[in-house]
Design a protein that fits this description.
This protein is an alpha/beta fold and about 260 residues long. The chain has one domain: Rossmann fold, CATH 3.40.50.720. It is built from 8 helices and 7 strands; from the N terminus they run E-H-E-H-E-H-E-H-E-H-E-H-H-H-E. Strand 5, helix 5 and strand 6 form a beta-alpha-beta unit. Helix 1 crosses helix 8, helix 3 runs parallel beside helix 4 and helix 4 runs parallel beside helix 5. The protein starts with a strand and ends in a 20-residue tail after the last strand.
Amino acid sequence: MNRTVFITGASAGFGAACARLYAAQGDRLVLAARREEPLQALRKELARQTAVHAIALDVRRRKAVQEAVERLPAEFREVDILVNNAGLALGLEPAHEMSLDDWDIMVDTNIKGLLYCTRFILPGMVARNRGHIVNIGSTAGAWPYPGGNVYGGTKAFVEQFSRNLRADLLGKQVRVTCLAPGMAETEFSMVRFKGDAAKAAQVYADTQALTAADVAGIVTWVTGLPPHVNVNTLEVMSINQSWGHLAVHREAQGRE
């Protein structure tokens, strides 16, 4: 076993797919997620291949994150790779109709949760002078769309925070990558639409989106490059997704 990999949001989607690929390489895994049942099922599956430590963790709780890191068993304590994957979108309403509670959850998870995990794991990487942090951003952090308001804002933060980490770590052998996927067919839309399967399915209807395995393959590739190579920011979309024309509001003008 080569490295210790700490993955948040590990119970499904990108996180679970990353865990499977790292396990296949023989890397030790620390898997953190809120939902304990799928988390333990994944732990049991991957324990046949590698050493796995699973933590039921809500990254929004700063003290819980601190305790989870401080109480890591000795064989998992030296984290080589942190995949900050925990994140979500809620709702697609315009800003003036959005739920403030949903906004709070997105900010607390996508921004604060990522900050807490980074802050408690990064000092060990700096002390050992090795490590790699992969922050999962989104194309929504660079390209706005109606209803993306706070979700897009949180992912823009992830990208800029990643850049600033690189600036802070100049001279250290600690790498930082922001990976910004576009449309990917995972539980993302089911979460966004709060379990409305019909709405979620419509997002991916009649097209081929990215898969969790696609994104996980990129994460493991980035972290497998020679130690002197840092991929700063990487945006990836399905070939079936691209940018559209600029929106223009048009209104029929009355004539005298």
